[in-house]
Amino acid sequence: MKRLGRFLIASLVLSALAAPAAAQDKPAALISPEQLARIRAGNDECFACHSPAGITHPTKPDLDLKRLRGLLRDADAFYGSDHQRLSCTKCHNEGYDEHPHAADAREMTSTCADCHDKTASAVGKQFDQSVHARNLADTFTCTTCHDPHLMRLAAKLADPHKIVAQDNRVCLGCHDSDETFAKFAPEKKTRPLIDEIHDWLPNARAHWQAVRCVECHTPAVATNEPISHQILDKNKAEKKCVSCHSADSSLKTRLYRHLVSEEHQRLGFANSVILANSYVVGATRHVLIDTLLMIAFGAMLVGLLAHGIGRIVARLRQRKNNER
Ligand code: HEC
Ligand code: HEC
Ligand code: HEC
Ligand code: HEC
Ligand code: HEC
Ligand code: HEC
Ligand code: HEC
After folding, report:
1. Is the CB of 87 under 6 A from ligand 5?
2. What pLDDT score does 292 carry?
3. Is the minimum distance from the CB of 176 to ligand 6 under 6 angstroms?
4. The pLDDT of residue 236
């Protein structure tokens, strides 16, 4: 069904749609190429140990390679992240210049609020209201979700598939892993299986690839505001299909908003953005395709129903046979 939709839509709009322009990075604010080169040369000293090469070619004898193996950082990922222009030592500010590192080095590491005072207090207010902050108090912090060596602002990623992959990796990394979940969950709480919780959603796994958990689990905000950090109680989560599967989809003001504003400026038109990225049944105005898909969906339902009735009849027959 999905393939059919994609194929039809692809052939319909292939030539009409330009691929969404890649987001432009801000020019390196007040950092000259020379400064940047110096920062990276400094970081190379850390990467000399904290990278796969540091394990295969240790720079010193007697390093605790077993521990180091769990502390590797990916240079390419770091230089694609929001903090790509920072020295490692900007955050790991004391105690890491030499190895062995200082015993209290970890406590000196900067927190988000040290540098992002205003954002962190605004985000912090929403976060304090979230289920995690309320139920899991001190163990759950900004860095539980944010890896400062990896994360990239949604507006910079631009491509909705990349945004979904990044943001859902955070939630699934814990809610889809017994080991990580157990580290954070209150005693005796077992992990509810993510697919079972959402069994009312057709093809939940396909949804995890195309929409973010936060789309349904946070309150709506104004289009010019970043998505809320208030993860709501489960009984307040979005369950209405039409909030996404409709022409005036909330996805437009959330997941696609970076593209939508661009598109609006360019063409005064937003639907092609969603079309270009996913075929979301109902969220488009291609009546013919919607109708075709609904027929296909209906046929599937009829098929399922017929199958179900068939099984009931078969079971009744069998029971009769057994009674004889
Ligand atoms: C000579 C190799 C080497 C260099 C260079 C090095 N590290 Fe380490 N680092 C290690 C090893 C090995 C560990 C594992 C714990 C230990 O043995 O101290 C570690 C641990 C860490 C930890 C975790 C410490 C903890 O308390 O959990 C951080 C953070 C860290 N290093 C950051 C850095 C930064 C930032 C730099 C660059 C300024 C750097 N390291 C340079 C070898 C190195
Ligand atoms: C924007 C701030 C920031 C920058 C820049 C940064 N780090 Fe970190 N790093 C942190 C924070 C915060 C933590 C602790 C995360 C946590 O508590 O789980 C951390 C954790 C680590 C750890 C693992 C500690 C552990 O026990 O898991 C290592 C190793 C590390 N950083 C190395 C580096 C290296 C190497 C660089 C430079 C390429 C770097 N960091 C740049 C903020 C930063
Ligand atoms: C040592 C200071 C420092 C710390 C600590 C720090 N950041 Fe940053 N962060 C920066 C700087 C500087 C930039 C801008 C980088 C640039 O434009 O090249 C930035 C950029 C960002 C951005 C992108 C913002 C934008 O408009 O481009 C996000 C999101 C972000 N940081 C989140 C975090 C989070 C979450 C934490 C805590 C885990 C954190 N930061 C910790 C200094 C820091
Ligand atoms: C439950 C996981 C989680 C926690 C905890 C969390 N964040 Fe986030 N944060 C996210 C996700 C997911 C996004 C991506 C939203 C988006 O793409 O717009 C995000 C986005 C951000 C952004 C970028 C917002 C923008 O402009 O689009 C900042 C800044 C930020 N977080 C800071 C923080 C700070 C500070 C804390 C701690 C008070 C924190 N976050 C705690 C999951 C979390
Ligand atoms: C590091 C682990 C971890 C991460 C990351 C995480 N969660 Fe959770 N979450 C938990 C735990 C543990 C609970 C159970 C809390 C309880 O029942 O007391 C929970 C509870 C919840 C609940 C249930 C609330 C209720 O009313 O029972 C929702 C919804 C939820 N998380 C959504 C999310 C979303 C969305 C994200 C990503 C933005 C996310 N979580 C990221 C660990 C995590
Ligand atoms: C289409 C909307 C939607 C999406 C997308 C979605 N959820 Fe949910 N989620 C819900 C609703 C609605 C409930 C409440 C279900 C119920 O109570 O029957 C729920 C319940 C939950 C719960 C509560 C479990 C419990 O019973 O304690 C957790 C945890 C959760 N979701 C996590 C996630 C994670 C993680 C993702 C992303 C992989 C996600 N959700 C994506 C709508 C959604
Ligand atoms: C948060 C937004 C959102 C909500 C809420 C939502 N969907 Fe979806 N749904 C999507 C997106 C986006 C896709 C496109 C997936 C893709 O590109 O393959 C999709 C795809 C689908 C598909 C096609 C699945 C496949 O196998 O390709 C069906 C069927 C569907 N949704 C039904 C529903 C129903 C029924 C509900 C309500 C119970 C619902 N959806 C709620 C966003 C949503």
Report:
1. no
2. 64
3. no
4. 96
What's the maximum distance between 2 C-alpha atoms anywhere in the chain?
A: 91
Other beta carbons within 10 Å of 94:
13
Distance in angstroms (rounded) separating the CA atoms of residues 206 and 217: 17
Q: Percent helix, strand, coil in the chain (nearest 5)?
A: 55, 0, 45
**C-alpha dihedral over 104, 109, 111, 117, to 10 degrees?**
110
Q: Give 136 Cα–ligand 5 centroid separation in angstroms.
A: 9
> Ligand 1 within 6 A of 63 CB?
yes
- Which residue's C-alpha comes closest to atom 23 of ligand 7? 2
pLDDT tens-digit readout, 165-202: 999 999 999 999 999 999 999 988 999 999 999 999 99
Amino acid sitting at position 158: A
Ligand nearest to the CA of 194: 6
Nearest CA-CA partner of 217 in 229, 205, 204: 229
Q: Is the pTM of this model over 0.85?
A: yes
CA distance 217 to 278: 21
